[in-house]
Amino acid sequence: MPVKTTSPAPPAFESWGRYPKHRADIVPLYWTSDFPLHAPSSSAMLPVGMGRSYGDSCLLDGGTLLDARGLDRFIAFDSATGLLRAEAGVTLAEILDFAVPRGWFLPVTPGTKFVTVGGAIANDIHGKNHHVAGTFGCHVPRFELVRSNGQKYECTATQNQSLYEATIGGLGLTGLITWAEVQLRPIVSRKIKYEGIKFVGIDEFVALSRAAQHLEYTVAWIDCVSTGKNFARGIFMQGDHSEQPEDLKPSGKPKLTLPVDLPAFLMNKASIGAFNALYYAKQYSKRKNALVDFEPFFYPLDSVHHWNRAYGKQGLLQFQCVLPWEPDFQQGIIQVLKAITASGLASFLAVIKVFGDVRSPGMMSFPAPGITLALDFPVRGERSFDLTEKLGNITAEFGGKMYPAKDARMAPRHFQQFYPQWQEFARYIDPAFSSAFWQRVTALG
Amino acid sequence: MASRSVYPPNRILVLGATSAIAMAVMRQLVTPAAHFFLVARSKEKLTAVAQDLLVRGALRVDMIVADLDDTQAHSQMLSVATSQLGAVDLALLAHGVLGDQAAAERDYFIAEQILGTNLLSAVSLLTWLANYCVSQGQGTLAVISSVAGDRGRKSNYVYGASKAGLNAFLSGLRNRCDRSGVQVLTIKPGFVATPMTAHVAKNRLFATPERVARGILSAVRKRKDVVYVPWFWRPIMSIIKVVPEPIFKGRDL
């Protein structure tokens, strides 16, 4: 008689891509003094925050996840300089709720505000102002790191310098960040002076980026489905904080939640092609100017909680690479786009941006001068994995690298080529810490 | 007597100030006029809570490190607190332990500790505070009890008994204070995702401390007597309360 099996419950902690699925114990931390654990875990540990990284950098199969979300207190704020000291589990959303009504804004923000300060440091995140402001880590002058042996280190660019540099972009592997200082920037308005410009082709995109170098925020949405004369069409978005003083109201709360997993087949080439065509057509004229609130400008997807459920239970894969200007960024981007188009695995939200040359203190930081391209596609077994493999090869061939926070499939040889400093970095890893990502990309072969 | 209370309260005494529910309540009460007095056992944790409230914009935060099980020290501690605050608009009793039911079944002294923390220390604090509030002619005594006090279950009946005792005490205290302008609020949270329940597998009935805090403050504002937080625990408990004992006793609860 066949044995009946019931499908196991989903793991308690998933990354945003919901792939891969790994099981781990979760230990919630509520106070900075909760770590190191009184009863040390025999399995490896990894701090986690909101689980917004896409792949397996916030997962640890059979390990212990230190849930730092409960470390959610502010410690000090200097209203003259905008320097905020906060526990590592405070989210960027909570910082905005606090700071915006007081006339301050995040120095760097990613495309979601639902990430913790600790996560922002560990992934050395970047945003639409990378070309002028660098990464998040460039604005974190000081933080405290606690190691599993109980040793505490206050880290700055000059004090415990190696741990400072290893921890920024260190994927949570160097110890637990308990608190950090973030240098906020002043604003007088919630509004962004926005301009959207339609383009076709990589040349036009690069020209627009060069022309907008003096503006704080630039990014472009690019259509990865269309071919022929519409190949690499997109909308270039640029903006600056409005200098017209206005009432700095706090943000409202998002009201929409995607309550259930959508069937995976909804995300197909036709539906995404239609979405892309509509998105492109939404802007009728070549140029469009508007004064917009910062929420929809920075966080269009945050208004729908759990939008990742649109990809169904199998989840989604993200791919983000940066290709340097040399030897041939243009050929590289074209090959990436063509590989995606040819795979038939449509990408819903592809984003392209020029990175600047502001250096991050982070040893393992991802951004580098050149062009970065980020996109997502549904998990469809081997077909998707073949595509990520191909994209990894193109990235390697053109001297680029891939972003660990958005990766679930990078080959060890690629990681070790992209981050040749990885063995030096490994010296600073806490001996009790690991992650599924780290185990994967440092495996032999 | 007409109520002289204003909302939001400005002079706020919090006993068990490092509890997750208390912290969520306090954050929602931060205004430039809010003066907090915090009491809890750990200086380190109290300092973290006080800093958070000050950064968020509270007028002033004072604190005393104390173990609330020590009822002998209550009167002096409350004298200091009330003289620092000048008056009390809201006193929130948020300290308590879930306790180890299995251990309490083996060892009476464990049960006694649970009753001591959840019931006796609250009785001691409330006796002092009720007299104080009656004499000032205003104030809200908001006390965190639990739905577990509505009916004893085998999984946590010592905790439940401590909360049931507290409920009866509060109901009598409310009756006594009714004409003096003092609000006595019995707060009955269901499952809340806090350090107290960190080891429990979460289900859909679990609420965040923020949601529970909103429910508590809405009840303070409306001068309610008993509040279930979230609200859906009221119908759930009204059903649980009417299940006949011969049926109830055979269930795994």
Task: Note down, in words, how this protein is organized.
Chain A has helices spanning 92-99, 117-122, 130-133, 161-167, 202-211, 269-282, 294-298, 329-343, 382-397, 412-418, 422-426, 436-441, and strands at 25-28, 45-48, 64-67, 74-78, 83-87, 104-105, 142-146, 152-155, 176-183, 185-186, 191-200, 217-222, 233-241, 256-257, 287-293, 304-305, 316-323, 351-355, 370-378, 401-402. Chain A starts with 24 loop residues before the first strand and ends with a helix. With 445 residues, chain A is of the alpha+beta class. In chain A, 23% of the residues lie in helices and 23% in strands. The radius of gyration of chain A is 21 Å and the shape is globular. Chain A has a domain at 191-409: Alpha-Beta Plaits. Chain A is built from twelve helices and 20 strands. Chain B has 253 residues and is an alpha/beta fold. Chain B has a single domain (11-248), classed as Rossmann fold (3-Layer(aba) Sandwich). Helices cover 47% and strands 15% of the residues of chain B. Chain B has nine helices and seven strands. In chain B, strand 1 (11-15), helix 1 (20-29) and strand 2 form a beta-alpha-beta unit. In chain B, helix 1 (20-29) packs across helix 7 and helix 5 runs parallel beside helix 6 (157-177). Chain B is globular. The model of chain B has no long low-confidence stretch (mean pLDDT 95). The A-B interface holds A 28, 30-33, 70, 73-77, 87, 98 and B 20, 44-45, 48-49, 51-52, 55-56, 195, 198.
